[in-house]
Amino acid sequence: MxxxxxxxxxxxxxxxxxxxxxxxxxxxxxxVKSGREAIEKVKEIDFDLIIADVRMPQLDGIETIxxxxxxxxxxxxxxIPEVIITGYADLDKYQxxxxxxxxxxxxxxxxxxxxxxxxxxxxx
Length: 124
Description:
Layout: E1 4-8, H1 12-24, E2 28-32, H2 35-44, E3 49-53, H3 61-74, E4 82-86, H4 91-99, E5 104-107, H5 112-123
Parallel strand pairs: 1-2, 1-3, 3-4, 4-5
């Protein structure tokens, strides 16, 4: 069965290109444009990986991950590995992500091969 990846990003060009890339590699990519949508999707679907942009309106990627983790722990569900993507160099956000022990942190634009290598290493 194909691995399911939740992609959380408010930039349509990013989500479309990631969806195309992931589909080509045999993954199922579910796209949402906000942290709130991501939390609702996690309640509906068991994902193998979450890819989240840092900067989004209302709820940023870091806060989204924190809320998803809290929900999963509350439901006694297994945590989902996360990869953070961002177009901005923000040392505080990077440090927070490292403190949360996310799987990886990538700066946009990133190399597709490097991106896929991280995904394969994380979920096969």
